[in-house]
Design brief:
homodimer, 338 residues, alpha/beta, Rossmann fold, 3 domains, 7-stranded mixed beta sheet, 6-stranded parallel beta sheet, 13 strands, 43% helix, elongated, DNA-binding
Chain lengths: 338, 338
DNA sequence: CTGTTAGCGCGTTCAC
DNA sequence: GTGAACGCGCTAACAG
């Protein structure tokens, strides 16, 4: 089977490669008539330009990368939908990479991305990442980056986040208002910006309501969820006075719910739980889990838009283009924009 | 800033481009000494080969495509994890495309993929797809394809599925054994192989237990979930004798749960629900939702393995390489391999 | 062991 | 309006 490329098209039409190329790009300097001829044959033979040859020549790949911890998490799943949507509309392709929250893997991925494979990168950093040289180095090789959700404050570029501090504050206030005396806070990693902000909201809300800060009530989870269940269980057994839990991530909220059931603690009479989550089924739980829900799909879309704008203009993306979207609190009796 | 490519490396080292290229590929025909020199400089300058130039030359992109309906569904999210894992281990990149179950979009995506961008494709067809010319045409341009979950029987290649018929049968038997008299079946599209197989399992199980087939009990859902809720509600109101629901997909199971609550039907006393789902939180519902869970992560891994094996060997992938994995039934009191 | 040469398919000069 | 020629960065065949 003969390959269908510019050369073969040109031969079949008795034209030069250059003319065919121009015709397909709708160049002004080619007669309408030949344009038609070329297009007709191209359509008939199902011609598709070789993406790599084109990328090589134009030094532009029409591809963006997405680096996230994992996708088996409703937030990222929804975000990808938004990203793909925007990318597709602009004719971009989407490469996906998972770090599994592993620093080494993140570095290796970023390293590979320096081969000109992508025109821009959307990223949510791994929870273990503390050194950002690899990210800066990618940026230095002219690959624009936009962070979303788990941002990296040390790198100067646009970031799309939610109002983590405010929602952490409000989540805590929600529990205080519901009468909780001892509110535990569960987070996954405290070198993650989102974790820090939510924690700070928690701390400030407690202080604002005259509670003294009890470090024992703050539990940092680990990667393995089975272990987290154990840790939460220990905490609740050691401190039976805990009557409120604010979970900073979905998994910990679900695990808390689970542990409370195991221990026979009645929700919400004995203990109240509120957690960040994008799980639709959370509202089906009985009692429903009170959640802080991030607009994941919109975050993906906005991040992609900012990135593509920067890519097309070939201009550096500035921190001033950052966006903060609002989370929503879905409670048993209330739904509120945070 | 001077570009760091083979040429610049060669100049700096007083070597030819070819030698540098060979050295970096650890070719046998280059002295250990020069290899060292080359590698040292490459590492220092952070050289990364241009992926597109390489792909163009070798006619090989080290990239696979994944085309799925959407990712905001636990099954596909988990499958992607498996795919990415296998791909990464073999040095492959993963391009992702979402069809949103839209035929036109699927055709357009497949069309674009013919530009040599990918070495192979993993695919779960859109529920609206009835014509497979676009898929066959891609296959004709030498792009190996492996289907997973939502396969396309008309195309000759390997398929990775779960035992849909058997689990549909068992799910139905589960409800029969639990004493249900009128069992409704909810499915999303009956031109999808998985839907058909699950439905057939349902029908055969009913027949085996001497039940007469009542077409009114079979409800075909639509794309919009809000509408599905309405449809399910109507069905349950029209047929209050329904005391069992077997939902073929996650969303319909969740929606059923929702509607039953709205209508004040008590689960599982009045009505029992069983559904295909990969939602971990399903077990937290009270009462827990009985689910048939597909090994999504493994399906992704196996499909990717078969595809990459074919890609590396540059040989056509045969239907005989297909795999059928087993789903698991998670019930209130039992957990069983189907 | 190393260098020279010739493309991969495409887009862009520069001629005519 | 069209064609010839060059080069993007890299790999592979052929010399020496």
């Amino acid at each position: 089977m003969t390959p269908v490329n510019l050369k073969s098209l040109a031969q079949a039409l008795n034209l030069s490669i250059a003319t065919v190329s121009r015709a397909l790009q709708d160049s002004h300097e080619v007669s309408t008539q030949t344009k038609e001829r070329v297009r007709a044959l191209a359509a008939e033979l199902n011609y598709q330009p070789n993406a790599y040859a084109s990328s090589l020549r134009r030094n532009l790949s029409k591809t963006i990368g997405v680096v996230i911890p994992k996708v088996a998490n409703h937030f990222f799943a929804l975000a990808i939908n938004g990203i793909e949507e925007v990318a597709r509309q602009s004719g971009y392709h989407v490469l996906i990479y998972l770090t599994h929250d592993d620093y080494e893997r993140e570095v290796s991925i970023i390293q590979h991305l320096k081969g000109g494979r992508i025109d821009g990168l959307l990223m949510s950093v791994a929870s273990g990442t503390e050194d950002f040289a690899h990210i800066k180095s990618l940026q230095d090789s002219n690959v624009p980056i936009v962070f979303f959700d788990r941002v990296c404050v040390e790198v100067s570029t646009a970031k799309v986040t939610t109002n983590d501090y405010e929602s952490g504050y409000q989540a805590t206030e929600h529990l205080v208002a519901a009468g909780c005396e001892q509110i535990a806070h569960l987070l996954i990693s405290n070198n993650l910006s989102i974790g820090r902000n939510r924690l700070q909201g928690y701390l400030d809300a407690l202080q604002a309501h005259g509670r003294i800060h009890d470090p024992e009530l703050i539990l940092q989870g680990v990667m393995d969820n089975q272990q987290n269940v154990g840790l939460i269980r220990e905490l609740l057994e050691r401190r039976p006075d805990i009557d409120g839990i604010f979970a900073s991530v979905e998994r910990l909220a679900i695990s808390s719910y689970h542990v409370c059931r195991q221990l026979g603690r009645v929700i919400p009479d004995d203990i109240k739980i509120i957690g960040f989550s994008n799980l639709e089924s959370a509202s089906l739980l009985e009692p429903p889990l009170t959640t802080i829900t991030q607009p994941a799909y919109e975050i993906g879309k906005e991040a992609a838009k900012i990135l593509l704008r920067g890519v097309e203009k070939k201009k550096a993306i500035l921190p001033s283009q950052s966006m903060v979207l609002e989370s929503t609190l879905f409670g048993r009796e209330s739904t509120a924009r945070v």
